[in-house]
Structure formats: C-alpha cells, structure tokens
Amino acid sequence: MSIFKWVLNTIPRGILLRVSYWIRPLLILFYKGSRFTDPIDGKSYRKFLPYGYGKQRQNALAPGTLSLERHRLLWLYLKNDTAFFTEPLKVLHIAPEQAFLTRFKNQKNLDYVTADLYSPLADVKADITDLPFKNDEFDVLFCNHVLEHITDDTKAMQELYRVLKKGGWGIFQIPQDLNREFTYEDVNIIDPKERTKHFGQYDHVRVYGKDYFDKLRKVGFKVTPIDYSEIISAELFEKYCLSKGELLPVCYK
After folding, report:
1. Extended strands (E) in the chain
2. What CATH homologous superfamily does 70-252 map to?
3. What does the domain layout of the chain look like in residue ranges?
4. Tens-digit pLDDT profile for residues 152-206
5. What is the pTM of this model?
C-alpha cells in the first residue's frame, strides 16, 4: 500500500482536511492526470480523493484546493452567473471554507469579512443568531453548511436577512434530502452517535427536506433553487465531479 493510500484510509476525514494542507504538493503530484478538473484552480487529476462521514464518496475531494462537490458547484455559479469577481461588493462569509478563504481575501474588488463563533481563521467572532453587524450592511452573504448545526435556524435566517442589503443576494448551502417533503429534527436527540444515525453527522441537529426553501422564504428571502446539472453539459458535470441532484439555494432580498 502506498503512503498516500495509507493516509487516506487511516486518518479521520476531519483531521485529513487539516493534515493534507501540508502534504498538498505531494497529493497534487501523485494524483496529476487529465480525467477530472477542479474549476477553482484549473488543475486536472487522474482522480480526486475520497471523502465523507461513514460512507465514503469517491472522487469527492480535489487534491489542490481540497474543495468538495459543493465548493466547486458554488465556484462555477459565481464565475458563470454573477459579477462576484468584477463588481465592488461588501461580502460577509460565515464559517469561511478554506478552498475560498485566501482567494476571496485577495480579490481587490471585494470588501471581504469573515465571521465564525469558533474558527481562529475568521475576522470576527460572531454567533449567527446574533450577528454584530448593522442592518442592510452587505451586498453578498455566504453561509454554507452551517444552518444544519444551529438549533434556532429561523433566528439565524432572520439575522442573515437583516444584515443583507436590499437588492443583495446570498447562498446558503445545506445538506438536503430531496426525498423528504419536510425537514426532520428532534431536539431530544443530543447524543453524537444518535445524531449521526438520525441526521448524518455527529454535530448536525436536523436533515433539511424540500421545505428548506420555504423556511427561507418565510423570513423574507426570495429563493431560486438552481440545478447545475440542467445548466452545464453532462461531460463537464462529470469532469468537475459535481453531485447530481444538489440544488444551489440562491437567495435575494
């Protein structure tokens, strides 16, 4: 077994994300090829790394940026369908993903602010249910794979709506089971193993269903769910290793 396979099979996924930043140059070299491309850095590979809690998804984690399917989906939308990379915008990014953090900070057109309750990488320590920002302050909001961790997600959504400017937009990705009509949650489930069993991860407090978009609409957002599998070719969808059926929730105020 190669050292790379030993690392992937032995180190827990959460730790692997941190460890692989210092072994990233070796991963890029080892996986170099032409079958798959990460649209974030443009590099191509013979395969991506597996990733997932419990059941592993094959070809999920890009060796260079360490992006997952949802990160690549968001990047493509920003590049192809918005002026995010050209217009002067004030941006709030809750729990910033490392695949984006440095890239967005280096964009001269952005006034880019990051916030998180725990991460030392964030500019501002903030509770999403009580954000320390003014009303109508930001042009763009990102809050991805956060709301499924928040007990009072309605309050968090209201805060996102409050700090977004009128005419502004945001993207709030979440794990979503589109086979469920309604979100499943149970406040009595607090044991990490039980949460994994019921919600898919030890620190999740719910599984969102199709009604997620209506929950956002109830606090005031106009929501457009975008299915990128209907926008780009099947060839590119596979080349970028995106997830079939994942909807991108684009929200407007």
Report:
1. 32-37, 44-45, 49-51, 57-61, 89-94, 110-116, 124-125, 138-143, 164-171, 184-185, 206-207, 222-227, 247-252
2. Vaccinia Virus protein VP39 (3.40.50.150)
3. 3-67, 70-252
4. 999 999 999 999 999 999 999 999 999 999 999 999 999 999 999 999 999 999 9
5. 0.89
